[in-house]
Fold each of these.
Amino acid sequence: MSLRLSQGGRLIDRSKPVKFSFNGKALSGFAGDTLASALLASDHMLMGRSFKYHRPRGVVARGHEEPNALMNIGAGVFFEPNQRATVTPLREGLEAASQNHWPSLETDIGAVNGMLSRFLPAGFYYKTFIHPRPAWKHLFEPFIRQSAGLGKAPKEADGDQYEYLYQFCDVLVAGGGVAGLQAALRTGREGKRVLLLEQAAVWGGRAISDGDELDGQSAEAWVAQAVAELEAMANVTLCLNVVVSGVYDHGYVLAAQALPDHLPGGESPRERLWRIRTGKVIAAAGAIERPLSFAGNDIPGVMLAGAMRDYLADFGVVVGPRSVVVTNNDDAYRTAFALKAAGQAVPLIVDARPECDSPIIAAARAAGIEIAFGSAIAKVEGGKRVTGVQICAQNSAGSALREIACDAVAMSGGWSPAVHLFSQAGGKVIWDEASAFFRPDATRPPTGDDGVPFVSVVGAANGYLEAAQALADGAGEPVPDGVQAAIAAVWRMPAEAPAKLREKTWLDFQNDVKVSDVQLAAREGFESVEHAKRYTTLGMATDQGKLSNINGLAVLGDALGREIPQVGTTTFRPPYVPLTLGTVAGEARGPLFQPLRKTPMDAWHDSQGAYWEPVGHWRRPYCFLRGDETPEQAVAREVTNTRQNLGLLDASTLGKILVKGPDAGRFLDMLYTNMMSNLKPGRCRYGLMCSENGFLMDDGVVARIDEDTWLCHTTSGGADHVHGHMEDWLQTEWWDWQVYTANLTEQYAQIAVVGPQARAVLERLGGMDLSAEALPFMAWAEGELAGIPARVFRISFSGELSFEVAVPAGRGLELWQRLMDEGEALGVMPYGTEALHIMRAEKGFIMIGDETDGTVIPQDLGLNWAISKKKTDYMGKAAQARSHMTDPERWKLVGLETLDGSVLPDGAYAVGAGENAVGQRNMIGRVTSTYHSPTLSRGIAMGLVVHGPERMGEVLEFPQISGDVIKARIVSPVFFDPEGERLHG
Amino acid sequence: MLILTCPYCGVRAEETELAPGGEAHLKRVDPEGSPEALEEYLFHRANPKGVHFERWRHAYGCGKWFLAARDTVSMEVFGTYPAQISEPPQELIDTIRARRPGWEPV
């Protein structure tokens, strides 16, 4: 049984008990514990079930690399899945629950998968469940969905706060172990602005737990002295609990800071995302221990050797009184010494290497610990916890020579330098045959914008695993040779393990990938390591293969008959550890997610029942609700009132771009499909703007202000884009043309005064002659209305008599109020965007984004009248002459009237005769806009239909998902007032 | 996340301030051009592994479009220059040749 010893544990405070719960059971640990150490101390070795076979799993590692002990933490708005128990600090009241089991952790029905494992090999999703077809939907998929997956997705929005922190430095040191402290001291003493970040809650990395000696001092004393010196330097910032998660191009670095004193729902943020720009990065991220591949290496109680001595040194916790150590290197011997020193039994060190010698091996012999060289674990005995091991020769097929009863197995397959940060930004790694690991290739580092390397690596991350080496490497001094005996590359244990052992030999604990799965993938032709990874899922999910990658590569290489360097590694991508989405989002949520643009009349709308809708970054009233009206009722009222009396629309969001200069006319002739240079001052013209590919991009009314000035109106959502488009062509193509543009959208408030009483209300305001003679349709005039300087454009998007009045933004609300007051006797009502849409659809006017979707050209919409025949060139003209654009089979704009008067669903497709190549009904058209018209009391729609304009009167069929078919007749898109008499008032 | 120096305002701008605009030095083809030339202009873009010339706009800065020469693999920036030019400046070509022996402009 795992338990806490009566003494020891440098990180815990035994005077401060901490209560928590696990799967509803009340437990207690100490301040300083992690969730994993507290569970071990309470004899909870079983911490979860595996992903695929639901095998019982216990904790394997000490840190972020933990693959098994993933927990659901918290509840409600503070619930979070897949939290690694090894890095979750214990706090009072913590609620933890294990994952991936049903009905309970102890008794899990899904474990039957384990017995079926022969039928669930690598890629089983793609093979086993294809036939019979219906079985996938009704049988296999529900079962797989029920049994697969790790934590549950939270159902509620995150209740915690998060924020960003911006940092700039000359040197970022990632990792506060011995090498990182040395590097920070060296660069700090040079006067550089240094940022030193450590993911753990304490400085010193492994050195203190391992009891290393540094410069003749204890590691504890050395680390304390180094930290004190760094803290005294004004140019050095150092911080614990910050994990560097990604190194990106040109010295951009992301790091996540966990705030350890944060309580759920507390006022302080839970995590901070550090957005760092640094000159150089020194990666001192240490190394990660590898498991060994022997049968039963996933049974709870089998743990990494380094982790086992961490739990002892840091928390005073042991997995059991009798532990067997199995290794292919010297480092695991330290675990044997540590356990011995704590009074625990170590019956045997199983060393896969042929007999060898080194100071630590000699010390083990001297301490009387039995060592079996050239040996291997054939098999671990036990189910939910280790009960013993079978020992065999490493160069054998696994026939047991002896059995040893034990409670725990400490395994070490050697250490892999954490090369992630170096690799993420483009650094290359090389295989070090003697040390059996990938190390950073100092000759191929990531380079910055100046072409100079910007990431260097020191210490264990650079392949210098011994403390004295890390000390020298971090200081930039020559690195002494190590004193340890050489590692032996052991990728399978025993070397000739037969299938029945390989099928119980786990490479990737988190994804349940076994040696046999990787071998199967190789046999099936997945030779590229990237393909084999995705086929077997080796190295995916929250741990991203931190334990499994190298062992998996070695097995793949072996199966393919290739050396490890030829197999290569998968790509190291950020983040180094999983980031909570809340941390990535920071404060950009709720009202701060994006800016909200408001018109000068916004407050008035808000007070008068505006029912808002977003339009780009703007909010606009969809309609104005009165009493207990529904939005549909309000929209119908607004349309009818505008057509019968008087409506006001806040059109301030309309884009307004001033184009000025001697070449402005020439420029606009290139930008619009029709001619703008011959527009007379004082007149307006509707214009279409296309991309170079010929597709309709934006539309709007252009007014000529004077000889060399035009005002271009754009769609509300398109103003910034159109302005950028204009600047692009002016700056990069026609830079010798004398044209100036200014986006004046927010400088003006604009009000559409619409309806039979439009002129009457403006005359009541007084100040300008707006008679049909003085201001004919498609003309504009400047003057004063109600004492407010104004431009009045006589244009109409509704088919009614209509004036759009632009005034300085600061006077928009005043004008709006005056119009409401003077209009009261004339039946004025404000209307919103939906009434605008309906009225334009009743008139057959197109809307960018409804009738257009980036594949539609003006010719499709019957807008040839707005395309100049005289011009030799305009943007998109050449493309519109391409064969596909002139194809008579292109779908063209028509009106659609349902036979029963109902409203067609938006986006519905019309089907024709026959089927396409994949057996679907041929489609011959689709609905682009569809509304209930209050004016006509029926459904109206616009759509694009093949040969549409030639098929007037034909009835099309629009099948619905329900199986019903809606029939609609092709008609003219102009449903109302086709003669256009109403806009003359 | 790239840093590019805007040649107009001199700011070392980071990528969040910039908007990308694709390949630089495209030659516009008007309706008089051949179908092949038009196809090349509209659709065919260079995607080199190595030295590349591209368009950027200092969208959240001075608003100007400029051009940059960059290595698409190592992210080295050889230089940025104003967009009012139809070919990369000779000085920049010389810089790239010096740093990438054997490279020739297409």
Amino acid sequence: MYGRSGAELVRELTFDDHQIRRFNHDLFNKVLGEIQEHYYQVSKIMTLLQEENPSGQIMHVDGNYSGALIHHQSLLRNKRCLLSYLYNRAQRIQRLRWQLGAVLPEDVRDLLHPSEKEFLKSYSDILGSYMTTVDLDLTVDATPPKDPYIKIRVLQHIGEVLLGDQTTSLSRNSIHFMKRTEAEPLISQGLVEEFNG
Amino acid sequence: MESGNGSVDRWEDATTATGSGTGLHDWTEGSFDVGSSDVEILKRVWRNEKAAPDILPYEAHLIERVHEQILLMEDNTAEISKTVDDLMLSIYQMDISRTTFLLKAYLRTRLGKIEKFVMHIIRTPELWERLSEQEQGYAQRYVDALSKHMKNCVLDKLETAYCSMVKQAESSEGDDMILEPDLDTYVFCRSKGAVGSFQLDERGYESVDLMLDDLYILRYRPVQGLLAADRIELV
């Protein structure tokens, strides 16, 4: 059935809740291939119609006309599916940039299409230079502050970190009281968690 | 000093504008009007921006003032710590981080809208004018990056009749692939003064009496003008 692969591709986005999955090259290329096939069919029918009727006026709706229309519509549908797939993933990549910073962990990067990596890099540059020109780091202070300081528990051994004007050793499972602005990047990277005990 | 908007004395300006009156009178003089301090205005502007479906004009002067105030207050923290106790200092720092949050949230909300409707904004001069210079740069570069990505993966592999990013096909009427904000969505709005009878549609079938502090859920399109004229606020 025409358009089924495209629908499958888009449906893949709804499986998981905003997590990024491995780029589905096989299905993606299959849909691209279908588009080429549809295009081939459309042009073949169009040439046929031209030969039959050189004036280009469509006199009556026949099998050829309907066929061309169906191929044309299927092509459009597939194109939209591909672009939706890309766009939706691009948005997730953007969100990752906000959460994890400019450099993504290796295992996340492996899931991306080469062009997506390039997009991530450009996006990261764009956001970075915007934040430099307005002189504010927009990726911190994401929630309205209740208290300038929060208690955090360290989830992974981090080692010596410069906090304020002194270094602190953040070893696993230790609990610290630190400035929210300093803790937020660590929280979004999953290295520490807010401790409400 | 009448309100936080003047800048007779920069330091006084900074403290006044944050609107945290109690306790701060030790080093600031004069009264102020809570509703018109820069931070209060920013809070309103941010709420409007969050609730409106399309992008609103950038509040350049306000943002510049608030940003300067934050930097000034941060610089003054050390000095103040000598004269006040820890509790006061922590309240003071709290105040700074709240203001910072507002400022950043405002800019973030705008970037989100710009990303979402970037093609529509770029092709509409009226909306384009509402962006700050930095945001215009951001929008332009964002579109470039996104279209490059789309071209690499899909569009360059399609035939010329179908390879546009803004049109489904060559034969499409107009650009039918651009996302536009839905101006007919409903918004919560509060009137800031007596507007009187206000028409909600062109034919005049529906109208509403807007009095001071009235709260209504209305369609965004007809009340756009009132918002621009600062006669209502969105909540």
